[in-house]
Specification:
heterodimer, A: alpha/beta, Rossmann fold, 4-stranded mixed sheet, 10 helices, 12 strands, about 40% helix, B: alpha/beta, 6-stranded parallel sheet
Chain lengths: ~250, ~500
């Protein structure tokens, strides 16, 4: 059915004389300046409450099934990651290409343990098929995060160049590294910030956004919860405390 | 379109009630989901929960009243994001759109994550008939597909099956014999489906929410198969009913708090995936093509019906199934079509035709529990009554078959209740005749038709030796107060 015909049919079913709204919807009429103001206020609040939120995230994430590592610094974080990788089902690691790895030199640390790390990035000259099979063969996937939501114990990833979707999905173990500046308090904060980014970025949402809240799970047989059906069985949240959090 | 068996509701219900294994599964299912739901709400706080429900109801009401406007906005945004939007008038057209997409792109294997609309369409059978392999990847749906059944519950399609049943299905259909534990069954599904999840040419998903403002769809899942279906194949096709739209991205914060709590008692599901279009050329993975198929399939009849339009607010959490005393006895298959439980009893008759599903609006005790638990405050009991009254007032053809009995009983009741003398006479006659059937103050079985139907599934209190009215009169005359014909305060007690 043609789009126009379908929309006319819906309008007719509603008995509306025109396509216009019957009453305005506040949130959609909001000016960009107002979204900016709200986002700025939220950012300021998040800055202020960072310590409490950092603690909250640690609690909610644990409840949602993350193994939480409170790393006092880069060294502690790296040690934890090496430990997870060396005890993984397959000692092969893939990671995304994000700025957190400039701070956290995981490749070198893992290499010293004899564990090889593949970077899921086309910039290295690999084809998409090669990258896909690297992700499929890996035992551990390591990513940074774009946001961490204290309310729900979730991390949010925005796939883009360098941030492949399969890194946090295909390997049986996923390690997410989160820094205090990625914290938001609630789902409302997150959607407000994404909405602002949409309008400031020339109406570009990016192709995909993923909330990850603990390991993959199912209760489809006799309602018994089983961890790790198609996605990662084991998820680790490395919270890089450092002095910024304190 | 999926086979319609709604005419079979009564015999199918009877079979379900007589099936002890099914009854055990239903007992486990209803209780489990519902207590998890209550825990999750308690943690959030009752007041906050009620605020969210009301907000959700308002958003849905506004969106449905302006669905043409928001669908157009969605269409424009998805197109601008590089996706293609297809509109399907009915199940057949939707099936054709998807088969055409698969065939024209040379897709041989399709992986599917959960979509109730695809159940309406009978999509798997349609694809198979075109020579395209269609693999359900949600564990429950996978079991159902292997067993060649239909979903038993909106959220847990296979909750009627025991692990022994699943073990048998896996042994027979995928050559994985001897699996006993649920963990091993889940692992077998993980291993068996992994290659398809990675290698399929096309992934088909449903959508829980469509954000008109940004052209984004939200998919709420737990297993990870949904992420694979929307990430790994080169083509992603999302399939959705036209009612799933919300206006703003920020509205999602409301619905993402309601849906998981109402459905499984989770604070948030393991995954929420939001798709806004195909991958950018610079991305390492993700589909090259993104298609959104928006399906009517009878929904416009609900939309134009002001008394039933609210049923389109449904976010498919299944809470009304879990609480419903009828669903908890007869289960999901008895309803005979895709949507069971109270929500199914309202929307199935409109989607498949009221004449086809006359018994469904009566599959409710009108206890109101479904309305209480509904996260978007759909007034299901009222809608069931609306459908019942339409069945009664309809032409000879579509009128309910109990019309004569119902109206006779109705008239009789009205007469008795408004004429105290006849009531008192009837009481005395009743007291005498009930001696044959009353035991210890209860009538458990009336022997004669048509009255035996009343006691087939309920017990009735026997008429007491003395009525309230008689006690009242006696006690008052004892105290020497003048005997009042009208009772206290002049009311007709």
């Amino acid at each position: 059915m043609k789009a126009a015909d379908f929309l006319d049919m819906v309008q007719a079913a509603l008995g509306k004389p025109s396509r216009e709204l019957t009453e305005p919807y506040g949130p959609l009429d909001e000016e960009l300046d107002s979204i900016r103001e709200r986002a700025a206020a939220a950012t300021e609040r998040l800055q202020r409450e960072r310590c409490e939120l950092w603690e909250q995230l640690s609690g909610t994430a644990t409840k949602r099934g993350w193994n939480v590592c409170r790393a006092a610094g880069v060294e502690e974080g790296l040690a934890y990651i090496c430990n997870v990788a060396s005890s993984a089902e397959f000692p092969r690691v893939v990671r995304s290409d994000q700025d957190v790895f400039d701070e956290m030199p995981v490749d070198a640390a893992l290499g010293a343990q004899g564990v090889q790390t593949a970077v899921m990035s086309q910039s290295g000259g690999s084809t998409r098929e090669e990258l896909k099979s690297a992700a499929a063969m890996a035992g551990v996937g390591i990513t940074g995060v774009d946001y961490a939501v204290a309310e729900t114990g979730s991390v949010v990833l925005l796939p883009r160049a360098g941030v492949a979707r399969l890194v946090s999905l295909a390997p049986p173990s996923h390690i997410a590294i989160v820094r205090p500046q990625e914290l938001v308090a609630t789902l409302d904060d997150l959607f407000l910030l994404r909405r602002l980014a949409y309008y400031e970025g020339d109406k570009n949402m990016g192709s995909y956004l993923n909330f990850i809240t603990g390991p993959s799970r199912t209760a489809d047989i006799e309602q018994k919860i089983v961890i790790g059906v198609h996605g990662p069985k084991e998820v680790h949240l490395v919270m890089l405390d450092e002095e910024r959090a304190g | 379109m999926a086979e319609v068996k709604t005419r079979e509701f009564i015999p199918a219900s009877r079979r379900a009630v007589d099936n002890p294994q099914l009854q055990a599964a239903l007992k486990r299912a209803g209780g489990g989901f519902d207590s998890a739901r209550l825990d999750a709400i308690e943690e959030l706080g009752e007041e906050r929960w009620q605020e969210l429900r009301e907000r959700a109801r308002q958003i849905k009401e506004h969106t449905l009243e302006n669905l043409d406007y928001y669908l157009e906005m969605l269409y424009n945004r998805v197109t601008a994001n590089g996706g293609q939007v297809h509109f399907a008038a009915d199940a057949q057209e939707a099936n054709e759109i998807i088969s055409d997409l698969a065939l024209s792109r040379g897709a041989k294997t399709v992986t599917k994550s959960k979509s109730m609309v695809s159940e309406e369409m009978g999509l798997n059978h349609s694809l198979e008939s075109m020579g395209i392999r269609s693999v359900e990847t949600d564990l429950g749906e996978y079991i159902i597909q292997l067993a060649d059944e239909t979903p038993f519950h909106i959220v847990g399609p296979a909750i009627h099956k025991t692990k022994e049943d699943v073990s048998e299905v896996f042994a027979e259909k995928i050559d994985r014999p001897g699996l006993v534990e649920i963990e091993d069954l889940a692992e077998a599904a993980r291993e068996t489906l992994r290659d398809d999840l990675l290698q399929a040419d096309m992934g088909i998903s449903g959508a829980n929410f469509l954000v008109a403002e940004t052209g984004t769809l939200g998919i709420v899942t737990n297993e990870g198969n949904g992420r694979f279906c929307t990430s790994s194949p080169r083509i992603h096709v999302a399939l959705t009913g036209m009612e799933k739209v919300v206006p703003s991205l920020e509205d999602l914060a409301v619905f993402l708090r309601l849906l998981p709590r109402a459905a499984t008692g989770q604070r948030l599901t393991s995954y929420v995936s939001m798709v806004s279009g195909p991958r950018a050329p610079t991305e390492e993975d993700g589909p090259e093509e993104f298609h959104l198929v928006i399906v009517n399939n009878g929904r416009s009849r609900l939309l134009q019906d002001e008394k039933l339009r609210g049923a389109l607010s449904c976010i498919r959490c299944g809470a009304c199934l879990n609480i419903c005393p009828v669903y908890r006895k007869v289960g999901g298959h008895a309803y005979g079509w895709v949507y069971p439980g109270p929500i199914g009893a309202v929307i199935d008759p409109v989607l498949v035709g009221l004449d086809e599903a006359k018994d469904l609006p009566f599959a409710s005790s009108l206890c109101g529990a479904c309305r209480e638990v509904c996260p978007v405050k759909i007034n299901l009991p009222h809608m069931l009554l609306t459908l019942r009254s339409r069945l009664m007032e309809g032409d000879e053809e579509s009128r309910g078959k109990a019309t004569f009995m119902d109206s006779t009983m109705g008239h009789g009741y009205r007469m008795l209740m408004s004429a105290p003398k006849i009531m008192s006479l009837a009481r005395r006659v009743g007291r005498m005749t009930q001696m044959a059937v009353a035991r210890k103050g209860w009538i458990r079985k009336l022997p004669l038709p048509p009255f035996d139907r009343w006691t087939r599934s309920r017990d009735m209190k026997a008429i007491p030796k003395e009525s309230f009215r008689e006690i009242w009169d006696r006690e008052l005359s004892k105290e020497g107060t003048p005997r009042s014909r009208e009772g206290p305060k002049g009311g007709r007690s």
